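<context>
A single protein, sequence plus fold
<entry> Chain with its tokenised backbone below
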Amino acid sequence: MTKTLKIALISAPLLMATALQAGAWERHGTVTGTNGRSASVNTYGGCSGNTCGHTTTATGPNGNTASRSHNVTCANGVCNSNATVNGAYYGWTRSANISR
């Protein structure tokens, strides 16, 4: 189960990379781990003004979920990135400022 959710969370940015554009979007899919078990992955995102973000939720075969939210806001040459990951057994938040 843990491997399946890790694979789903790693694969989620690949789903998002093809969809990053202004406006709302969503992607849905299934990821299968090396153990043959599958997780469903749902990603919703969009942009408004100078902020873009997305939320991905992966649900494993036992019904456990893990989610990742990521927002980036840019203004005056500085972009602020905030990401949060939550799962049944863990959670963390990461923030960063990126300047040109």
